[in-house]
Design a protein that fits this description.
Elements lengths: L5 E8 L3 E2 L9 H13 L11 E5 L10 H8 L8 E4 L5 H14 L5 E9 L5 E2 L2 H12 L3 H9 L3 H4 L3 E2 H5 L9 H11 L4 H20 L9 E2 L5 E2 L11 H5 L21 E10 L1 H7 L5 E10 L8 H12 L9 E4 L4 H11 L2 H6 L21 H4 L3 H19 L3 E8 L3 E9 L2
Parallel strand pairs: 3-4, 3-5, 12-13
Antiparallel strand pairs: 1-10, 1-11, 2-10, 5-10, 6-7, 8-9, 11-14, 13-14
Helix pairs in contact: 1-2, 3-16, 8-13
């Protein structure tokens, strides 16, 4: 069955703001609302003309569980435009785009706002099950004496040792590994040195700085907090990034033998990204000017302990279907969850054994030209608000393709739990 193209009309994102061990200035709802309003106000149609709003979010707050609907109402879509939320861990924003594609292709929608958001600095702290049971017994206690007896048995360590929600969310419950530990697995499997990881990370910062200077982040919508402070750029990008500075950082996930550090890992951050997707009929009706079309999408699954190879398993079927080689792709965006993970994807495609045994190919596919891979840097420099990153890399791919005169690009992302997602994007003139 042919993949009927769906058009990208426009897109925008917030600056990605690094988590600094305290709740940031914006909730997920704030981020998605401010960016969504700015994007929609410049369109020839009204927000109420949208057929639906789909928002990916991996960690919505308790009062915004269906954050897609909450934001749809806040940005002026009205009561009649459905809004809903999707969650596929790191690819939640890409899943929102794919869900919009499916609904446009089957005729349920013509014009959709789709994207992703997360405010990971607002990730909650939880009480342990022991403390929850203590609170339950306290609620059931009827007399002051019974309550006093419960307080007497309360351990200060239990009260002062909350469960960190973000840490739980970044731990695979099936294999029991933190995401960074799965990156260590890849570094070991493909013999990726600490120095190569750090070199990749420094380059990510350098490319992000160059892209900013060249105006390639003009999709960023400045944010204003309640005190009037303006946030207009990704604040995790470091102009002083260097190999010597990164070399001083200690391994975090395997403190004795590891190579993965905070410096060669993606940043925990807050951010939102939106795209407007359209059918050909909506393009004609509203006289829209498409920037690109999404020509294919693929999801894949693999061992959760090596989840970082997800982009390889998702992008390869797209290449096969379209009879393309790695070199036929003008630009690549592979989300930088970890430097080890992106480097491992490169190594897997260059490995005869991996391509034969894991992908069913006759031989290795080869290498991606490093100049075509993440030319504006990636999540190591910019940040990785989990729910937003899948949408961010599609939007960034579109902009870098058009800026560089490229025709065809692939955005790919690894997904906690052992999955991968990829999209083929082609520019429209």
């Amino acid at each position: 069955m042919a993949f009927e193209p769906v058009y990208i009309i426009d897109g925008a994102r917030s600056p990605f703001l690094k988590s600094r061990h305290t709740p940031g200035p914006f909730t997920a709802g704030d981020l998605a609302t401010q960016v969504g309003r700015s994007l929609l106000v410049r369109q020839p149609f009204a927000p109420t003309d949208l057929d639906e709003v789909i928002l990916g979010c991996a960690s919505p707050s308790a009062d915004e569980i269906n954050i897609g609907r909450v934001v749809a109402l806040r940005i002026g879509c009205g009561r009649r435009v459905p809004g809903w939320t999707v969650m596929r861990n790191c690819a939640s924003g890409m899943q929102a785009i794919d869900s919009a594609i499916v609904n446009i292709q089957n005729g349920r929608a013509q014009l959709v706002l789709a994207g992703g958001v997360d405010a990971l600095s607002h990730a909650p702290l939880f009480y342990s099950p022991t403390m929850v049971r203590w609170f339950a017994r306290m609620m059931q206690a009827r007399t002051p004496l019974a309550k006093a007896a419960l307080f007497a048995r309360l351990s200060p360590a239990q009260l002062l040792s909350p469960v960190i929600g973000l840490l739980k969310g970044l731990t695979d419950p099936v294999v029991g590994l933190l995401m960074g530990q799965t990156a260590e697995n890849l570094a070991w499997r493909f013999d990726i040195s600490r120095q190569r990881m750090d070199e990749f990370s420094v380059r990510s910062h350098q490319r992000a700085i160059a892209a900013r200077e060249q105006g390639l982040f003009n999709d960023i919508v400045p944010l204003i907090d309640e005190r009037g402070a303006v946030y207009d750029r990704d604040d995790g990008v470091r102009e002083d990034a260097s190999l010597s500075a990164l070399a001083r950082l200690k391994p975090f996930f395997d403190r004795k033998y590891g190579r993965v550090t905070p410096g060669n890992s993606s940043q925990v951050s807050d951010g939102a990204a939106w795209l407007i997707l359209s059918s050909a009929a909506a393009v004609e009706r509203w006289r829209l000017q498409p920037l690109a079309r999404i020509s294919d999408c693929q999801w894949a699954a693999l061992d959760p302990a090596e989840m970082g190879l997800g982009p390889v398993h998702a992008a390869t079927p797209i290449l096969n279907r379209h009879r393309l080689t790695l070199a036929d792709i003008d630009r690549w965006e592979i989300n930088e969850a970890f430097a080890a993970q992106v480097l491992a994807c490169q190594a897997a495609w260059q490995s005869d054994d991996y391509c034969r045994e894991e992908l069913g190919l006759p031989a290795a596919l080869g290498a991606i030209d490093e100049q075509r891979l993440n030319p504006c840097g990636g999540a190591i420099a910019l940040g990785h608000p989990v729910g937003a990153s899948g949408a961010r890399i599609v939007l960034q791919l579109l902009r870098t393709l058009r800026a560089g005169g490229g025709r065809r690009g692939i955005a790919a992302i690894c997904i906690g739990g052992g999955q991968g997602g990829a999209m083929l994007v082609e520019t429209v003139t």
